[in-house]
Amino acid sequence: MRNTKRYNIEGKNSLWQLYKTVSFWKTFRNVIVIEAARYIPFFSVKNWMYRRLIGMKIGNYTAFAFKVTPDLMFPELISVGNNSIIGYNTTILAHEYLINEYRLGEVIIGDNVLVGANTTILPGVVIGDGAKISAATLVNKDVPAGAFVGGNPMTIISIPDAKSSISK
What we know:
Layout: E1 5-8, H1 18-21, H2 24-39, H3 43-54, E2 57-58, E3 63-64, E4 69-70, E5 78-80, E6 85-86, E7 91-92, E8 95-97, E9 101-104, E10 107-109, E11 114-115, E12 120-121, E13 126-127, E14 132-133, E15 138-139, E16 148-150, E17 155-158, H4 162-167
Parallel strand pairs: 2-5, 3-6, 4-7, 5-10, 6-11, 7-12, 10-13, 11-14, 12-15, 14-16
Antiparallel strand pairs: 1-9, 8-9, 16-17
Helix pairs in contact: 2-3
């Protein structure tokens, strides 16, 4: 289940009222930083930009592949643990603008997580440590630690047996 906070909107659809919910200048800055970072081939520079310029929480040795797009309006709601890989052209959303409401939710990605290419991560999900997400997955709910998931909508393909994990 996704953990999002809902905000009701009256009148025009919520996206039409975008700049009543987030500053234009914040969004403008985030777009510039994220678009530049999408093409920068140096992980340390990319992570520095995400941490210092737009407020994302990123662990050590995490790698954002070419053309990854973090949320443009609320990137500070995204945290990624240590030693994780976010695959090519993945989108990480922390917001949803709907007709009569908008929703915000933290995205928490654990340590040693592998996210396959062209994946979309929706707001309000937690991806546990050691999880593996296949390419082109729609992550629409929490992913247990160590699980292998995939598909649209996402399904659990395998999850480590608690007993076998303890004996290792």
